[in-house]
Amino acid sequence: MSAPVFVDTNVLICALDDGDVKKQERAQQWRRELWESRRGRVSFQVLEEFYVKVARKWPAARIEARAEVRDLLAWRPVAVDPGLMVQGWRLEDRYDLSFRDALIVAAAKAASCRYLLSEDFPDKQDFDGVMVVDPFAHDPDKLPSK
Hints:
Elements: E1 5-7, H1 9-16, H2 21-37, E2 40-41, H3 44-57, H4 62-72, H5 82-95, H6 99-110, E3 115-117, E4 126-127, E5 130-133
């Protein structure tokens, strides 16, 4: 794997959630690979959603979630700015996405990612050069080709 990979909130949450051990293990495998390869990317939107969802679902894990957010700052989070908002609106209209999802795709494009790791979009969907990869359908060392 050589191209940057944008990670959606759900993958980060699955890495902590022991409710589905298979998903947790796969999400942790992806996380490890992306840390080792230095290819992982996120946005501040993803970090905020991750923290809020973890703190709501597991209040005792807030300290762990904060530590994870601090660690993920090394992935150079994309900030929502006016240009990203406009790109999000374009993607929202073109692909009939929710604005939240459109901002995720726009942030992946802004981070020059070839892949968007998420189970919230159709696997292998292409959004103007950013391909969705379902982390639970693909191994980190076997990314689908475009």
